[in-house]
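Continuing the batch. This is chain 6 of the set; chains 1 through 5 are on the previous pages. Same settings as before, nothing changed between runs. Recording input and output for traceability.
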Amino acid sequence: MISICRTHASNVKRWRDGQMALRWCAAGMVEAGKQFRRVNGHLHLRSLRDTLEKVTKTGVTVQDEAITAA
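Output for chain 6:
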């Protein structure tokens, strides 16, 4: 990911401010995200978590935020 961000940001000839650097870094990460692979069994992680909570009965607080990949 870092090398793709570096290559993507090499197109910039004049950096104006920190916000511009962040935007180009984010754009590079979006490009790199297209090449990422998914973890095997990623569809079963939620049921694994639910089963572990039932077995341990600890009441651990977890975040249920929806995560979207680029």
